[in-house]
Amino acid sequence: MNEGIAGKLAKQFINSKITPLLMVASLLVGIMATFMTPREEEPQIVVPMVDLYIPYPGAAPAEVEARVAKPIERTLTEIPGVDYVYSTSMPDFALVTVRYKVGEDAERSMVKLWSTLMKNMDKMPPGVQFPLMKKVSIDDVPVLNLTFWSKTKSPYELRQSAVQVADELKKISNIGDVEIKGGLKRQIKIELNKAKLQQFNVSPMQIARQIQQGNTQMTSGDFKQMNQELVVRSGKFIESAEEVSNIVVGIYGSAPVYLRDVATIVDGPEEVNNYNFFGWAAAAPKGSLSGEYPAVTLTVAKRKGGDASVLADKVMSRVDGLRKTTIPSSITVSETRNYGATASEKVFTLLEHLLMAVVAVTIVVGFFLGWRGALVVLASVPITFALTLLIYYLLDYSLNRVTLFALIFVTGIVVDDSIIIAENIHRHFAMKRQPKLQAAITAINEVGNPTILATFTVIAAVLPMVFVSGLMGPYMSPMPIGASLAMIFSLLVALIATPWLSFRLLKIEEGHHEEYDITKTGYYRLFNNILSPFIESSFKRWLAFGVVGLMLVGAIALVPLKAVQMKMLPFDNKNEFQVIIDMPDGTSLEQTARVAKEVASYLKTVPEVASYQYYVGTNAPINFNGLVRHYYLRQKANMADIQVNLVHKGERKAQSHDIAKRVRADVQKIALRYNGNAKIVEIPPGPPVLSTLVAEIYGPSQEQQIALAKQVKRVFEETPGVVDVDFLVEEDQKVYNLVVNKERAAFRGVSAEQIAQTLRMSLAGMDVGVMHTDKQLDPVTIQVRLPQSGRTSLQDLSGIFVQSQGMGTLTTRLRAGQMIPLSELVKVEENIQGKSIYRKDLRRVVYVTADVAGATESPVYAMLDMDKKIEKLNLPGGYSISPLYTGAAPSDDKLSMKWDGEWQITFEVFRDLGTAFAVVLVIIYLLIIGWFQSFKTPLIMMIAIPLSLVGIIPGHWLHGAFFTATSMIGMIALAGIMVRNSVLLIDFIQIRRAEGADLKQAVIESAAVRTRPIILTSGAVVIGSVVMLFDPIFQGLAISLIWGGVLSTILTLVVVPLVYYMAEKKSTVTVKNKK
Amino acid sequence: MSVKRRIRVYLLPLLLALAVSGCGDHAETPVIKERQPAAVAVNSIVPVRTGGNSAQGELLLIPETALFRNGEMTGVLVVGKDQRISQRWIRTGRSLNGDVVVLGGVDKGELVVGEYNPGLLEGVTVIKSPNVTEEVQSK
User: Fewer CB within 10 Å: N-end or C-end of chain B?
Assistant: First the structure.
């Protein structure tokens, strides 16, 4: 008897003592790996992104764009590996964002960027300051947020406590950035008194200079004397507000003028620049306080590669310790984000699903093979997963939702190899043709090789998904890698462990002694009844094919009919969402706070909301989405973020997405009452984008672009299902331009710079130094400024004086030091602030953004809907535009529009998956040709692939689900599984024919014999997938596997044998004729 | 210890499932109940006035007695259309004859409690007491 690899392996291990040892060892290392692998929620995504802040004080956006943004962008695009370059030119500075291709090495990218930037710094105009370079990475996202709030303490006191706690926490190993959001810092405020300044003949500039000069201390050198060195030090740092007030800032008459004479010195909280409030809401734990309280948030990020849950545990226990010492009892510390806990929870839920899937599959197997067979299969799964988890650990993967998802996804598939082997051993035991050991080896030999082939077809099916490019790549690639690894291990387990277990566990039943006869089995009779009529009558056969064809066409037709909609990924059920409020530019901090409070008061009443925290004038702690959207720059007075924490998903019925949809209208109504724009921002399930729907508008001039953007925005607003419409064009903001009268300034001996500096110091304030104290952890700045009440209107500027520099300027004969009122030197012009200029990949662009929710959940349909309306828009010049999908228009001569946002990623993913699928088909074809040595047979086997669509698409329709990227993955994997079923089927036909059976008999027998393993394996896939059905993200995959699996299994069992019969009949006839 | 926590985390969904299935029929009682307490009488409810001269432009004014402070933050109690009060943070400028100039946070014509009283909590319904007596004021 000839033995394949499978037989040889089985023979080696079936009676070896090493086999159980191997099994136990792999289980142990797997368990160890599970606890040692870092856990996190999101997969590690390396997208080097660098923000360059380039200050160009005084320049208008257009100038910033032309002199700074444009030349820098041009040089940056030369760097290899750069994917996109975005820039925003604002008044006074440019923000250039460089995004590298996914997976580029972050440090190397920084070096390249740095050297390119340095090479071109000489081309920058004078006045441009040195750029600030900030690398942005996923590890900047805080994993833990602690909100310090109190009934009695002020934001200043809260911050003091938080700073102390932060200092303690920093000592924990593996901790990343610790930051504090909100609260007020300690500051020495020097509030100038205009009248006194004039009286004592002191100018603000003079004060600044005196403080700076008084706040120095240095080592002057040393004396050498008597074999000793004596250090000489001079000067003294400012150490208290008292010292500041005693600084002599001028001489009046013959008496010194102290700072306290001309200004009020206040040591205390800085001027209010943010509002941060926390409150419990409707679903808060019982006994919680109502009302809202000043709050400060301490955010903790983790170090790259660290375990979020371990870090969170350590921090929390440290904070518990500090509660007794550092944190006053009047301050409550609430945990408002713990990604460590959510990651752990997600990981354990997924592991639990995994367990459920395994148990469900075991029960199914038990029905067919008895409990002993079930036990054999059950034992093989943990070993497979243990080994896969070990490889995850060794490959530095973390346990996150994607890597675990890969495991759940293959649960139904990895048991298959074991099932096939165990089932065949079971069958051979039942046949009782050979002694036990011999029977087992024969059984393995019979199915071993097709199993190996089948495993490789499934691997061939999933592995090409590695090539999904772009941001979606890191979300996808662990899946094919994990699944392929698991498949290989499952094959090894099936060939080594399963025979050993089967041999020991499966019993030869004693009951019946008659010779095994296939024709007497129920399966045979069934297939004889079903297949015979089709085999005998070609008309019936064609009719059957016709019916199947119609079903296929019908199923596919559901897609254009919109019965099944496409979407990249559905929303996950999260425990939080954010509300982003944008008030018109120029809105005061208090007005924004008022709107935020009103929105928060509404959110408070939503039954699922547990707590909320709003941040005005400072950004809420970011998440990965906020990182990509640059939400960390939301620190202006007209911006507010509300962090909404929902009750745990186990304690509410509604999904977070449904809650978000429900509150959207009311939230927006409140914001709109104050001319604000509010958006509900959910955590996207996949890679974040600027917005779900983005229309990029290109054109010859900014005015035309904005005009078109306004029209497009209107189209957005009118389209049902399109929500959160906004565009990145600022409202007109009034600017007072104080133009210096040059002649007059020259006559008075005052320079334009002096005027600008004095004004800046008076209004925005100027930090003139820090107080040197070792007790304070936050630096205490010394700031010179006019008090709030003295800088409210243009009129207030009249009392500000500048000092003549006298003869030094060479333009005047006035005595130096004479006080000149500012109002004499400047003329007020009212202007409109220049609008920010956005550029993407070297071209000016205006973005219109929106989200989809409600009437349509998939951006693609909204886009198609809006296309028609946008094409009808009237444009200057009388031409029309048609939105582009895949790339921007080649030139800016005419207005054009391109869709971006989620679409761009969807497009890339489905394109890559489509390509992957095509490659899969070719590889499978080649594999089967290699095995069967026939060009025709593989085609017959692959008929099963399109048949899966008959189940998949109507399945989605039945569940009212979207056809998502995970559905597509399911479809691709199913192709592998279905081909494997065909392989097993046809392999047996060929074995039977080689043994001399008639073609018809062989076809029916094969169907009968293989039905059980095929139903078992497909059943395992179907049952294993049921647990995923309730997960919002994996639902599509589950539907594909369940419905596609059921339908195509049934059809495969009928259609494939029939097609094979038809194809082989002719060749059989010709062979006979030749004979 | 961490193993313990892991086990706890692992058991959590199970326990939650049990808990939820056990108490599915009665709804969660919200913390903030719709209380209807008797309206509190306050001495004065005044509208935000406008003042100022042509040079300064229009200014928003409220009485200085209406202000309260929490650290560096300044607030007033605004009386809403439903007679309920809510804390509002404002930015103040200079004082003008017992009034203070508001730079941001309130609109012209909005009603504020003229004399701040720390006993007045967010959400309380207030009415203007018809006859102000000395006792009430001293309270």
Answer: N
